[in-house]
DNA sequence: AATGAATGAGCCTTCATTCAT
DNA sequence: CATGAATGAAGGCTCATTCAT
């Protein structure tokens, strides 16, 4: 990319980042068109290429930006004092919701990166998302699995909870604007239910 | 579509249906290319258009075929005697796994239809999937929610279980061939865990 | 490239080859546009890519075709009995003029290849033209330099004659159709003059 | 163009003229890019357009400047006392070599103008080069063709010598900087040879 | 005056669709 | 019925040109 991008007014930077992020997050790499971004961000076609060389470069930049921003916020929010499984995951989603105030499609972009499989950019995408996944695992390592009911297998819990969050998130983006508050309250509701079912004695 | 399609040898019909289904299920409507189908099914490009007019027509046909076939099988397998939540859902997945012996990508196609959002075909896709969703709801109506622990809300359970199945399914299609047996055994494992956690007294 | 190109009717093959050759020879690689070829050959844009993958592939094919064809003809026409410098060079130009009956821009294409310097294809172009240059040198090795006047240096003669031919050729392509007969008669005229001036005793 | 260009410091004027001339001479009108000129001259993109309106205007200016400068120098160097064919042509090339000390690409630019055939500017280019061609012819009119061997036709000599010079010049610009001394000595060598072959009694 | 960010028309390339065989 | 050659609209990308600073 062209580092002069960062010399632009923060406002314009964010308009471009948000435009690209929205289209990439909603459509995936291949179906995301520069024309869409032009419409969404109100920035001419040529400019994207002026700063990011090509579509892959733009995707890489947005992906990187998204994860770096999230990880920075997580570094602040994920104090090691948190040891409860659901508390940790909630904090993570809370952080994402926080970011969505500036970058509304960031939470969806993170997820889109995990789902992305276009051969032109899979490799780089995977490498970009890695640090985030590590951070999550690291945070969850503070959780004492002994708290889980004997019927509950940790790996299966991860999957169930992970896909449930994904489902809630997708739903939250379905119709119109993403509402962080509503999203979090729904997450919380699910987590309450789950705490009552998977912990050894209902908490 | 052109009804003469059904005059073809069943074998060729299935080769075409499977080819289209595979590409649509794996890539989604827009990214599914006719060239891919030609390669996968070994049937010339012109023939698809001869029978199905255009890509949208082909998608509609395959979507319709898939759901109709599934619903027919469900009509047989979902006897009203089944009343347990997880038994019912398991029977549904078992039915899909059965279908996968003839149409390996049918289970993924059903899911792809639920996720599809290409404006050219969303509407019709939604209408095609509807009968299946109704059948599922109908079957689940035999379940007595009183069996659920007081902490568990039915709508939330639906979502959690639904997305968990989706996750397991996606994983099952990730690497190579779909293995129905393995898929079902994994589903069963999750369902066992869930039964132990969401029912009023662990069954 | 796609070898099925050779299954096309010879007529169409030649229409495409001639179209591409004309545009490449007249404009050079970079400025040659597919739209021009579409107009000149009356063949749709997509078809060029169907057979030749991309512009570089098309150029490479035409370049290769041109040189191979020329070298085949030269192998016939350049009998080793020819030992006179100008006879040899005349035979070469005569051969090119012969080819121009089927591929009118082949003589200009050969020259364009020598002048080409677009970085995307210089290397491959150079390697394609090589066998022709070798064949010319080989043929000229039969010439006895002792026939040259003491004032004439062979390397300088090569250059003078070479650039003169190039000049005559360029002129021949300037206005309208290339006329092989006229071209050859002009070459001959120059060669007569030169024989009278560079040989030891005016022949 | 904007006449205020001449209010700039001579140094900057020449930096811009040389930058444009270099890129135009090496690549031709169409392939000459403003970005290249920016890099070569270290002058911002906007400024070129500020003074020359558009690319065609810039080309026209440089072409005009080049020829006018050359003709002024020729007016000095081509004293009517010179009557030998090769002496006259040598003086012309010597003059070009002299100019190359200030405008290194001027000799190549003159030639590029003769070769230029981009429809957007052919006409104007042709009209700009005209005065130079006339001056050359005028100077050569002092030559007594009676000095030529009976085998040598004047028009053919012109062409042969002209294209030979062009070839030497192209070679001189091939690798790195243009070296006027080397260029002239090579020209001289060829001219010596030619004098010995085309004059009635070897001088 | 001078800069370089910003624009959009144009070219290469892909792919659904048509059609001659 | 079957084939795949042929087409052209649409998307990625380049570059002359404009314009706010």
Q: How would you sum up this structure in a few lines?
A:
The structure is a homotetramer of 203-residue chains. The first copy, chain A, is mostly helical and 203 residues long.
Structure description:
Four copies of one chain form a homotetramer. By secondary structure, the first copy, chain A, is mainly alpha-helical. The first copy, chain A, has one domain. In chain A, 69% of the residues lie in helices and 0% in strands. In chain A, helix 3 (45-52) packs across helix 4, helix 4 runs parallel beside helix 7 and helix 5 (85-99) packs antiparallel against helix 9 (180-198). Chain A is elongated and about 60 Å long. The termini of chain A are far apart. Chains in contact: A-B, C-D. Chain A binds chain B through residues 30-31, 149, 151-153, 156, 159-160, 162-164, 166-168, 189-190, 192-194, 196-198, 202, and chain B through 30-31, 149, 151-153, 156, 159-160, 162-164, 166-168, 189-190, 192-194, 196-198, 202. Chain A binds a DNA duplex (21 and 21 nucleotides) through helix 3.
Which features characterize this protein?
homotetramer, mainly alpha, DNA-binding
Mean pLDDT of chain A: 95
Low confidence ranges of chain A = none
Please state the overall shape of chain A, judged from the principal axes of the Cα atoms. Answer: elongated
Number of helices of chain A: 9
Helix content of chain A: 55-70%
Specify which chain pair forms the largest interface. Answer: A-B, 24 and 24 residues
Distance between the termini of chain A: 50 Å
The description of the largest β-sheet of chain A is: none
The radius of gyration over CA of chain A amounts to 18 Å
Overall number of strands of chain A: 0
Which oligomeric state applies? homotetramer
Question: Structural class from helices and strands of chain A?
Answer: mainly alpha
Domain count of chain A: 1
H-E order of chain A:
HHHHHHHHH
Q: Percent of residues of chain A in beta strands? A: under 5%
